[in-house]
Structure formats: C-alpha cells, structure tokens
Amino acid sequence: MACLGIESTAHTFGASVVTGDGKILSDVRSTYRPPPGSGIHPREASRHHAAKAPELVASALRSASLHMDDVDCVAYSAGPGLGPALRVGAVVARALAAYYSKPLVPVHHAIGHLELGRLLTGASRPVSLLVSGGHTMILLPRRSRWRVFGETLDVTVGQLLDQLGRYMGLPSPAGPEIESLAGGGSRLLDLPYVIRGNDLSFSGMLTAAKRYIASGARREDVAFSVQETAFAMLCEVSERALAFSGSGELMVVGGVAANSRLRAMLESVARRQGARLELVPPRYSGDCGAQIAWTGMLHYSHGLSVDPRASRVIQRWRLDEVTLPWIDR
Amino acid sequence: MDRPIEIKELRMIARGAEADILEAEWMGVRVILKRRLPKEYLNPALDARVRYHRTVREAEILHEAKLSGVPTPLVYFVDPVNAEIIMEMIQGFRLKELLESGRRVDLLGVVGQHLGRLHSGGIVHGDPTTSNFILSGKVLYAIDFGLSFRSRAPQDLASDLHVIKEALESYHSDLSEEAVQLLMSGYSGAFDGSSEVIRWLRRLESSGRYRGA
Q1: Engineering a disulfide at A49: which of A88, A217, A271, B210 sits with its beta carbon 3.0 to 4.6 angstroms away?
Q2: CA dihedral in degrees (A238, A201, A191, B20; nearest 10)?
Q3: What is the pTM of this model?
Q4: Which residues of A touch B49 (CB under 8 A)?
Q5: Which contiguous run of DSSP H or E holds residue A15?
Q6: Buried b / exposed e across A191-228, counting CB within 10 Å, b at 16+?
C-alpha cells in the first residue's frame, strides 16, 4: 500500500509517498519566501504553490519509482491554515483522486506532525510538545484523540518569533535567524512570563520585546531573552504534563522543534522526570508532505475517505475535534 | 536572607514538578515547608525571578483567601530568595479519602462554597482537586495554592469548576449525580457572578478540548 500526500498549509508546498508500513519513499518540497521584513502573503503563497505543484508531485512519484496507478490513496492537508494556500493542495489532490479514481483523504495538518513524529521516533504514548507557526500545544494521545493538556491563549511561539523577526527586518520564517542572534546575547531582559493553569500566553512578551527593540536594546539580547523566557514556559508545562501522566516519553514536533536551545532544555526536562526525549529528525520536524501521506495512510487503513465533490478545506480546525481510531484507551 | 530560627526537615511528603513539600519542625511545632527548587535548564536569572514571584504570590493568596472566608494554612514565614514558605500543617483527612470511603458527600457543598468565596475575592485556585482539601475537625481547609492567580474573568473561574468536576467524574465516578449538584449549589449560593461562570463552564465542556470520548 502507498499514499501520496500533499501539504500546502502555509509557506511550504510538499509532496510525498509513504507506504502502509511507514516507509517514506519520497518527500519533496518548495518553500515560499516573502521579502525580508514582511510576513507571508496568502495570495503570493498560493501562487508559489500553484506554480510548483505539478513538478513536485511528479518528482515525488518519480523518486518513489511509482506511477499514480500504484498509489492506493491521495491525502491532502485540509487545514488549519491559510485558505488560498490550502486550496491549491486540495485542488491538486482532488484532481488526481478524481482522474485516477483513487480514494481522497483529508488530513489535519497538526495531527500530521504528531503522527509522523510517532512514526519516526517510535514513541507510543508520548507527552507531545507541538510548536509551529500555527500551533503551540502540549498534548497526550488518549481515548481516540490527541488531548490538549495546555495550549497558548493567544499567539503561537512560531508567531512570536516570526513577528519579532519581521519587526527587526529579518526574513520569514524568522526562527533560525532569531536563534543565531540569540547566540550572541547574554543579558536577560525582563519579559512577561505568563502561565494560566496549564495554558500559556505570549502576546505580552511580543509587545514587550518590540518595545525593547524600539528603545534601542541590543537585538541579540532581545532574541536571547525571548528564547529563554518563551522556552522556559514551554518546558514548565511539558514537565507538568510528564509528572501528571507518568508517561516516559517526551516528543517535540513542529517547525520550532528545530531550535537547538529548545531541544537542550527539553532534554533536561525529560531527565528530571525520568523520561526519554524523542526528537524528530530536523528534516521532518517542519511542514512536509510525509506528515500528510503517513496520516492519510492511517486514516485510509481505518476506512476513512471522502467524495472529492464533498471535500473541502477548513481554515480553523481544532485538532482535538478529530476522532482517531488508531489511538486507543 | 537567613532564617531567623533553624528549621529541622523531617520527611518528604511530595515531590512535584513545581515544588517539594516537606514536613518539618520549626520553633517546636510541626510545620509544612514548601520549597521551589532551581531548575538547571532555566537561565539562572529567570529561574530566580520566577521562583521569587511565585513564592510571594502564593503566600499572599494564602492570606487573601482567608479574607474571603476560606480557611487555608497560616503562613508563618516566607523566604522569597530561597523560594520557601513555612506554613501551618493541617492535620486531618483529605477530601479524596473521605469521598473514597463513600461518606461525607455533603462536604462537596462546602467545596462549592469555598470556590464561590475565592472567586468572589478574585482568586482562582488553579488546581482544586479532591486532594487539595483537608477536613480538620469540622473545618474544611483549602491547600496548595501553587498554581493560583488573581482574576475575575469568568473563563478563568470556570476552569476551577472544570478541574473539580473532572476530578469527581474521573476519580470518584461512583458518586451520585447528587455530588455535582451539591457542589454547584454551594458555589451558586456563595458567589453572585456564578451564572456567567457556569455558562463559560458549559462552553468549555462542549469544546473539543474537554469533550469525552
């Protein structure tokens, strides 16, 4: 069995073929880069995706040494994300499914991160930190769903880093640039550290960080302080989730998982709680077709597919609304 | 800051993600010593700041709760620099045990009343599970304000109700419907703003995050 997965949630258009037993046969992608200092423009992103889609889909099949006839189903990221960007992936997937008479499987983008993470790390029931542009959540797989233990009440960590980066004139996504700036910082500036129950808030931190920049603070120190403070909050709630659940695994997925300072801090959190830190290879921690192909495979093997005429995209879609038959207890 | 009087640590009661709770002897009495330990993965300055502010806030809220009419342990001594609170040791039975033995369902009315009073005073407990209430004689004490904060926002207050309801439904699922009713009527009787909080609670419970399987 094999599934062709198409990802087009935000910056990245990706295509990948994954087999029923979880082998990634191919994974190709192209990322739209807005000019430095500006954010992602949904229309520009969708133009980029539409231009790249044909070659990337063909390339994914070619690298997998498969033809469309050999593929058992076509999966696409149905949301959440930017409408115009999502629609490109949906149109491509729908057309392929209809033309080749293949089952069409809509996939929740963030569940894709989590399930690909479990596949690649071998973790079974990990406390999972999902940190990306679209999500900041601490989750546990329980009773047919990914259950939210804690989440951001306002902006995500990805947005915090991107918007700070844009304010400083850096290219988007700004995470890697912020990380290298932070390496040159040493002075810890006072920033709001806000945890409500197990939920987090970053909007006050973003405002305060911009204010430091405006008043002439060193960019290195601001980047350093934002990383230290925001990641500390993530670590605190992750540690509580580990203590609460007794899970021996801590997994981190999403674009921000590529940050080495965050990884080092989580390593220490896991050690304190007697857990193992499960890291997704950096190549697969960000948006990619493989997360959609693998999760599509899981859905399809549990009997889920949709009629192309009824398929749609959902810009706002909570991941804990999706029932997942492969998660038991 | 040095402690004015030496404290003798006797035994570890609990080691949480947040703090260690110890039984100790101080000025000839048995006390509880709550200590927030440094975390090596945090920037030292940030760690010191967070532990300092949390310790001060917890001590303040333990006191403010009393002003709202909710019995809490007396705070004897606060050392914000070392992130330690020395407080009264409440001798008695945890609500969790009293509910497990099937008796004292009536206490849930008092729990509701306590939460209503805290919320009237603008305090969110943050973790009102059945382990965090102790019956000592005839007085029901609320303990562990480590996650508490000040808020009057109905969505924040609703999260307290959600925590206790979930504790009742998951750990004490043998209790009758009456248990939750007692809780809610105790709450409504003690807090004028209860109806709006209960509306938020319903919203919370119907959202994906809290829906059952």
Answers
A1: A88
A2: -40
A3: 0.89
A4: 190, 193
A5: strand A12-19
A6: bebbbbbbbbbbbebbebbeebeeeebbbbbbbbbbbb
Reported ipTM? 0.82
The radius of gyration computed from the CA coordinates of chain B, to the nearest angstrom, equals 18
| B156 counts as catalytic | no
**Residue-range domains of chain A with CATH:** 2-113+286-321 (3.30.420.40), 126-284 (3.30.420.40)
All residues of chain A having their beta carbon less than 8 Å from the beta carbon of residue B208 are: 318, 320-321
Q: Which CATH superfamily is domain B93-206 in?
A: Transferase(Phosphotransferase) domain 1 (1.10.510.10)
Tens digits of pLDDT across chain A (329 residues): 999 999 999 999 999 999 999 999 999 999 999 888 788 899 999 999 999 999 999 999 999 999 999 999 999 999 999 999 999 999 999 999 999 999 999 999 999 999 999 999 999 999 999 998 899 999 999 889 999 889 998 999 999 999 999 999 998 889 999 999 999 999 999 999 998 878 899 999 999 999 999 999 999 999 999 999 999 999 999 998 998 888 999 999 999 999 999 999 999 999 999 999 999 998 998 999 999 999 999 999 999 999 999 899 999 999 988 999 999 86
Q: Which residues of A touch B18 (CB under 8 A)?
A: 240
Interface check A318 vs B, CB under 8 A: yes
Cα Rg of chain A, angstroms? 20
Residue type, A223: A
Residue range(s) in chain B whose domain bears CATH number 3.30.200.20: 7-88
Is the torsion defined by CA of B120, B124, B130, B133 positive or negative?
Answer: negative
**Chain A 267-306, residues with CB within 8 Å of chain B CB atoms:** 267-269, 272-273
Q: Which CATH architecture has domain B7-88?
A: 2-Layer Sandwich (3.30)
Which residues belong to CATH 1.10.510.10 in chain B?
A: 93-206
Which residue's entry shows tokens 């509701």? B112
* Cα–Cα distance measured from residue B77 to residue A238, given in angstroms and rounded to the nearest whole number: 31
